[in-house]
Design a protein that fits this description.
Blueprint (H helix, E strand, L loop, with lengths): L1 H24 L8 H25 L5 H27 L7 H13 L7 H26 L2 H23 L2 H7 L1 H24 L12 E8 L4 E6 L8 H19 L7 E4 L2 E7 L3 E7 L4 H22 L12 H9 L8
Antiparallel strand pairs: 1-2, 1-5, 3-4, 4-5
Helix pairs in contact: 1-2, 1-8, 2-3, 3-4, 3-5, 4-5, 5-6, 6-8, 7-8, 10-11
Length: 344
């Protein structure tokens, strides 16, 4: 059991440190940030594991053992609170952080009640967490597909495995069903933490679920530099779209001349913004965003392809009047806005 607990401690510390460093290196890092919340989640699990190891293997005399058990439960609930906070930042539902606040309240209650009530309070927090993961699962399946949906399934599976593992690996199950069931629970917890950590660390799936918040504007520019279509998505942006289109086209032509290549830009960074390019046969699509998400690059490519399929005959004889492309607004809405969430 000590070996499994030690492996869990190493795993949670390892993934927590990796995610924290990624947050620390981000040029757009904020205190209210998904990466920071995930790192707190893993650091909380690490502290919880260490505290339980101390109370189980080393300090078995009262009242010090109870003190370490209290620390273990507090860090567990802190970890679940961070998880719920991360989930609520992704969900579009108006939860007003109810789940994470309720979990945080449970953490403070732990400090005021006898140790006999620790388990019921932890069960309540676990139930809140299960509600959060089910809401997340429903929402993410409504708006994702392909690789991103696959990664969402993996994260959900990992969390459920870890959640059941923590329940089965509790003292209550140990006394009721014996050491074998207890060890199985510890292995499940380790496996779940590893699966979630791998997806969080080596993919960008969960980061990209806030893709709509990163959008600033989309431009379709004819090869000669004329603006064909503009779709603004940031109310605070007051840039002249015609001048912006001309500047983007001129910059691309300049670098093509310098590098003696026919290839256009793919992704470039300007200050706090990322410009994502998609090249069609007669035009270039440019998506301005705050982050260069993979999902956003796919969306601008899809927009260019579908726009050329629908308006290809008009693009060739375009003279500067964008009225011909007004119906494209519905196309832009369908690509750059989330699908309505199904109710019941």
């Amino acid at each position: 059991m000590l070996i499994i607990d030690s492996a869990t401690a190493f795993c949670t510390l390892f993934f927590g440190a990796l995610i924290f460093v990624r947050w620390l290196r981000s040029k757009n890092r904020r205190l209210i940030d998904l990466n920071l919340a995930w790192s707190v989640f893993y650091f909380g699990l690490f502290a919880n594991t260490i505290a339980f190891m101390i109370s189980t293997y080393w300090i078995i005399d009262e009242p010090f053992r109870t003190h370490w058990i209290t620390v273990a439960y507090i860090t567990l609930i802190l970890s679940l609170t961070a998880f719920l906070f991360a989930i609520e930042q992704i969900l579009p539902y108006r939860t007003h952080n109810t789940l994470s606040v309720a979990s945080l309240v449970c953490m403070f209650i732990i400090l005021m009640v006898p140790s006999s009530l620790y388990v019921p309070i932890a069960v309540i927090t676990s139930a809140l967490t299960l509600v959060g993961i089910l809401l997340f699962l429903r929402y993410s399946f409504d708006i994702t597909s392909g690789e991103i949906r696959r990664d969402i399934k993996i994260v959900t599976f990992g969390f459920l495995v870890g959640w059941f593992g923590y329940v089965v690996g509790s003292d209550s199950f140990y006394y009721a069903f014996g050491e074998t069931v207890y060890i199985i629970g510890l292995i499940q917890l380790l496996g779940g933490a590893t699966v979630i950590g791998y997806v969080l660390t080596f993919t960008v799936t969960l980061d990209e679920l806030d893709w709509e918040k990163q959008l600033v504007g989309a431009y379709l520019i004819q090869q000669g530099g004329l603006l064909i279509f503009h779709y603004g998505m940031d109310e605070d942006s007051d840039a002249d779209e015609v001048l912006a289109a001309a500047g983007i086209s001129g910059g691309q032509s300049l670098f093509q001349e310098i590098t003696k290549t026919e290839e256009g830009f793919n992704i470039i960074s300007i200050g706090e913004y990322e410009l994502l390019f998609a090249h069609g046969s007669d035009m270039t699509g440019v998506l301005i965003a705050r982050k260069s998400y993979r999902i956003l690059l796919g969306k601008i490519k899809e927009f260019v392809v579908r726009f050329e399929e629908k308006f290809g005959s008009i693009i060739g004889r375009f003279t500067g009047s964008m009225n011909d492309f007004e119906p494209a607004m519905d196309l832009a809405e369908s690509i750059f806005r989330r699908k309505p969430i199904r109710r019941g």
